[in-house]
Design brief:
482 residues; single chain; alpha+beta; Alpha-Beta Plaits; globular; 16 helices; 4-stranded antiparallel sheet; Aminopeptidase; 8-stranded mixed sheet
Length: 482
């Protein structure tokens, strides 16, 4: 019996090792690196100048400073004269849509897009910035300020790439649209929404679109030396629920056993301890299958033998914030309200919870799950609003392959994989008129810079910005000629 067990274990070990060895990176792509000469100083200065326009999208339209937006639009016209003379410009409120007419009108157009509005700087956090958020300072090869990552770098990068191609004498075969949104940070209804309506009305169907999204991850995955380019082929939806606890209320000097806030606290705790079920399936499985081939041997062993280690993998990934968001619909309690006075017991206590909906779920299924978890005679669940996840675009289509090839022509042996965008973008609109909608910024991103998104000390290295411009050049060149 012991010999039988020992033999079985040896066979199991051999299978695990062989599968791990086979779970290796694909051969290096057979592409030649391009040699593109970009005026780095000039391009960096342009991104710096764009940051000085406080194009802030506040939740309340009454707080919007229109002069900053119109100033930015005029600055684009003045700074990029060749773009504005060569391409046709159509305005949708304060969103700019450029059309670069292609020579073959039988081909579906493509869209390359970004947004120039930014989120506010958190009041009181200004002194935490190493350099003022709206001065666009360039210090030691780094461009500082709100929009350096999200997403003026994308907008300026596309404009710089277009200017380069025009100067080179390039003419697209396939029509290229460039869209620069002014209200993405508040959902894009008057920007991308209006552009999408225009394209629908004129029966213009895009072959593919490229919007902001993921980046080239540098050092984000332990032990991985290659840059990881996760080209997002879908984005999560969102639903916001109010968890409402009710009680009798009264004076705080005579609190009952079941205070509404106490009941609510228990409900929130249940939600945190029972996240929406997830797992490594579908798009998430494809993404981690690609990335894991670049891991060290022990980690590759786990992913190469999921039939044996799936539970371990799920447990480990669920502990990592970024990875966990790829696996499931996430739960985030964001707002709380209760009594109107310190000595008054509330008759109603409310926790507002935001869920980012994975493509496997729906807003309705999330609400039903939450109701089951927090079920109590003193608890009700109300829906504030939400939207479903996007459709999943193809990662085998020409558009995806052209973007991937362009990245390798600029960055070399990049590990390219389809990914899932855990936030939202204007592609929620553009996806309605595109055969495939991709979400990717061709700039390097490190763990250090990640906190700059909607946070403090947003910045980008000049060299990373220049490499991104080169990538946009190749994406537009290849995408329009394919």
């Amino acid at each position: 019996m012991l010999k039988l067990i020992g033999g079985s274990l040896l066979i199991l070990a051999a299978v695990i090792v062989v599968r791990t060895i086979m779970h290796s990176p694909p051969p290096s792509a057979d592409v030649m690196l391009v040699n593109l000469n970009i005026d780095a100083k000039k391009a960096a200065q342009h991104l710096s100048e764009s940051i000085t326009f406080k194009t802030v999208s506040n939740q309340s339209q009454a707080d919007k400073n229109d002069a900053e937006f119109t100033g930015f639009i005029q600055w684009v016209k003045d700074t990029y004269p060749s773009v504005n003379s060569k391409l046709e410009l159509i305005m949708f409120n304060q969103t700019m849509l450029y059309k670069w007419q292609g020579s073959d009108q039988s081909l579906k157009p493509i869209l390359v897009t970004g947004h120039y509005d930014v989120v506010p700087v958190i009041p009181g956090s200004e002194d935490k910035w190493e350099h003022p958020p709206y001065e666009g300072k360039i210090v030691d090869g780094v461009i500082w300020g709100r929009g350096a990552l999200d997403d003026k770098s994308g907008v300026i990068g596309i404009l710089e790439a277009t200017t380069f191609l025009i100067a080179e004498g390039f003419s697209p075969t396939r029509t290229i649209y460039l869209s620069f949104g002014h209200d993405e940070e508040i959902g894009g209804p008057e920007g991308a929404g209006a552009v999408t309506a225009y394209l629908q009305e004129n029966e213009i169907q895009l072959a593919w679109s490229l919007d902001e999204g993921s980046f080239l991850f540098d050092g984000m995955f332990p032990g991985v030396e290659n840059l990881i380019a996760a080209i997002n082929v879908a984005e999560k939806g969102s639903v916001t629920l109010d968890i409402v606890a009710t009680a009798a209320g009264g004076h705080s000097s005579m609190p009952p056993k079941n205070n509404a806030i106490g009941v609510l606290a228990k409900a929130i705790n249940k939600l945190e301890e029972n996240p929406v079920p997830g797992g490594l399936q579908g798009l998430s499985a494809t993404m981690f299958d690609s990335i894991s081939r670049y891991f060290d041997f022990p980690m590759r062993m786990l992913f190469a033998n999921r039939w044996l280690f799936d539970g371990v993998i799920d447990s480990q990934l669920s502990r990592v914030t970024f990875a966990n968001a790829m696996l499931r619909t996430t739960t985030a309690t964001t707002m709380l309200s209760g009594s109107i006075k310190t000595n008054v017991l509330p008759i109603e206590a409310i926790a507002t919870v935001n869920f980012r909906v994975h493509p496997r779920d729906t807003p309705e299924s999330v609400k039903a799950y939450v109701e089951g978890i927090v079920a109590d005679e003193q608890i009700t669940v109300r829906t504030r609003g939400g939207r479903s996840a996007s459709k999943v675009s193809s990662w085998e289509a020409d558009g995806f392959n052209q973007i991937a090839r362009s990245l390798r022509e600029v960055y070399g042996d990049v590990a390219v994989t389809p990914g899932l965008m855990i936030a939202g973008s204007d592609s929620r609109h553009y996806g309605k008129v595109a055969d495939n909608a991709y979400r990717f910024n061709p700039f390097e991103l490190t763990q250090e810079n990640l906190a700059g998104f909607h946070g403090t000390n947003e910045k980008m290295k000049v060299e990373d910005f220049i490499m991104g411009i080169k990538a946009y050049i190749q994406i537009m060149r290849r995408g329009s000629d394919s």
